[in-house]
Amino acid sequence: MIEKYQAVKIENKITFSGSNLNNFFFNPKLFWDRVFGRDLFIETTNTVLGTVIHYCANQYLTTKQVSSQDIENYLQIVDSSVDRDFIRNHYKDMGNKLFEWLDSRVFGEFKSELPLQAEVSKYGVLTGTCDLVIGDTLVDFKTTSQLSDNTKIPMNYIKQLQAYYYLCHKNDIVINQAKIVYITIPRVGEISEKTGKLLRDYPCRIYELPLEREFLDILKIENYLKAIGEQIDFIKENPDKAHLITREGVEL
Question: CB burial class (10 A; 0-12, 13-18, 19+) of residue 172?
Fold first, then answer.
């Protein structure tokens, strides 16, 4: 069964997710809007495809079976703007390629789709679900439509990996390295609208980008999470002054 995304809520706490962390630095208004539910998660064809691929990875690792009916049931409840046929036409090729990668990488102990949380202050709680931990390696899966490989991990993914690294650290899971694993969306048999000729095929591929060690500095990560926690505590204890931080009032 695949469930739609729902923010984690904890009584008398204010939570924020690892996927939202980058916004604190580069789009603070959006960060707070998401924390307080003013900006809801919007489903797109790419985000839904990503959810399906994550489901395939977890099911393959834990049961070696992927239910096409579970996927179809999920596609029936997503936003009407999502291109369901696009997802149906691509997820199997992408899933099979990912299964090959998993078979070649996952040996011994692993943890899949691991939900974690950790307090960063009196009222602030960081939450997140780690895609995969293999031994002491943290893995985050990303689907991409780019035809050329990324050479560097973008900052929003770095912040997300740092959040998961911190969550693992606080939950006594030893992590010494982290990486992004990209699964490309295949482009096969497409025809040019201009010429009517077949375009070059780009089958699904998987490639890895390791996170540089300098970004796994737990003290630096703790320091900026503490700063976020201090702002959350201020908002919780002074709701009438919340606009000084969030730019809008909040309902607690």
Answer: exposed
